[in-house]
Design a protein that fits this description.
about 450 residues; 9-stranded antiparallel β-sheet; alpha+beta
């Protein structure tokens, strides 16, 4: 889970989008379609139309009283905006968002490198506009009308199969080789992998859904959805003070996440500017796993038994060896009977970087709940997303060790998997992936 929020601000006036659209036939993104008002212009004129926002920006109604002289500003949640252009793509170090979607696409028959380039150009235009709080360039659905940017991020990646489909096999990174099989895997191939991957997150569910629909529509005849997963996290401001998120098992999850303030953070999470292949400079690799939590079994355990499985206090996230959430875990501490306070197979013990040759990854998941199975068990768990400079040095060694004796494995099941190369951020005037597709 990310520990550093993206700086937010009230949505500034939108810049003209520099992407050329002549090759796609799409309208220029700098021109709002006739008759379609941008989301931010709508908010600016809300007072004149009688549409008002509640004091906290959470309720909308029609005011009988005279319109205020000035429009009511967005709440801080709605006004927060992530930047599309930058050294890295958004959605990696961005603070956890309240809702999101993970979706993979396969290129359609006959679509190749040219069609993929046009698609990434369209997607980049749409992502930049929506992240700035604007409407889509054309055929906007109005789903996000009235809302601000709400920290929307859209992140794009390439799967192993993408490179053969586009004739770019020589540009495929060695780090994108398929993940090894793990004993805990029960993978559904139809919900795994894919040519292209998109991660969408926002602090408003309608803003996230609006972006999802726009991305799906932009795919046109070039790509079709292979799989889609929908997730959520606690909403910003729901706790008295900022804190590490909890998962559906009730555990604080993400305490030992690497932090951007740490001197070796970039080296662990991002491909160096001098790395290979060149088009992956400042990019990262995302491992995506749908992890089913066997909640009925988990919830039968006592609180103490749950803490022993994880190795941390459920209430505070503090290690069982004592201290606060951020106190270093004492792996050698024993109780009066000589037993290890943190059990030898505790999840938090096994996943520690110093127990895995320094292997580290930035975990940035969503929870999911997709209803109830026929036998009455909840289809719920974690959409696990982790970021690292090299999955062979990040995810793989940790998962192999978990396979060999993690106490938590009895209560989870890995049901789908994907690995995606996520290039660095697009510079002004570029689209995501341009350095690969136009090399």
């Amino acid at each position: 889970m990310a520990d550093q929020p993206t700086p937010g601000s009230s949505a500034p006036a939108a810049r003209k989008t520099p992407f050329p659209e002549a090759s796609t036939g799409a309208a220029s993104p700098s021109d709002t379609p006739r008759g379609v008002m941008s989301r931010r212009r709508l908010l600016g004129t809300a007072g004149a139309t009688g549409l008002t926002l509640g004091a906290a920006g959470a309720a909308v109604g029609y005011a009988a009283a005279p319109s205020p002289a000035k429009p009511v500003p967005l709440s801080s949640v709605g006004a927060d905006m992530a930047m599309f252009h930058g050294k890295h793509q958004p959605g990696i170090t961005t603070a956890l968002q309240a809702g999101g979607h993970l979706v993979a696409f396969d290129l359609t028959a006959g679509a190749g490198r040219r069609e993929a380039a046009a698609l990434l150009r369209r997607w980049s235009v749409t992502a930049q506009r929506l992240m700035a709080g604007e409407t889509a360039a054309h055929e906007d659905t109005d789903v996000a009308r009235d809302a601000g940017p709400s920290s929307l991020t859209v992140t794009f990646g390439f799967g192993h199969s993408f490179f053969a489909r586009t004739g770019l096999e020589k540009q495929r990174p060695a780090a994108l080789d398929p993940l090894p099989d793990f004993s805990s895997d029960h993978l559904d191939k139809a919900r795994s992998d894919g040519d292209l991957w998109v991660q969408i997150g926002a602090n408003d569910a309608l803003v996230a859904f609006h972006a999802l629909r726009a991305i799906q529509k932009d795919a046109g005849s070039a790509a079709r959805v292979r799989w889609q997963m929908n997730g959520f996290n606690r909403s910003p401001g729901a706790t008295a003070a900022p804190m590490t998120a909890r998962n559906l098992m009730g555990q604080i999850d993400g305490t030992r996440n690497p932090k951007p303030t740490e001197p070796d953070f970039d080296g662990r999470i991002f491909v160096p500017a001098s790395g290979t292949p060149e088009w992956m400079a400042n990019g990262s690799y995302a491992v995506v796993r749908r992890i089913r939590m066997l909640l009925d079994d988990w919830e039968k355990l006592s609180g103490k038994a749950q803490e022993d499985v994880i190795g941390r206090k459920k209430s505070t996230g503090a290690p069982l060896s004592g201290g606060t959430e951020t106190t270093a875990m004492d792996l050698d501490r024993t109780d009066a009977d000589g037993n290890l306070v943190v059990p030898i197979n505790a999840h938090a013990r096994i996943t520690r970087p110093d127990q895995n040759g320094g292997a580290a990854m930035l975990r940035r998941p969503f929870s999911f709940h997709d209803g109830i199975d026929a036998d009455g068990t909840p289809d719920a768990g974690l959409l696990f997303v982790c970021w690292q400079a090299d999955p062979v040095r990040g995810f793989v060694p940790v998962q192999r060790k978990l396979d060999r004796g993690d106490a938590l494995s009895e209560f989870i099941r890995h049901e789908s998997s994907g690995l995606f190369a996520v290039p660095g951020g697009a510079a002004e005037g570029e689209y995501v992936g341009q350095r690969l597709l136009e090399a």
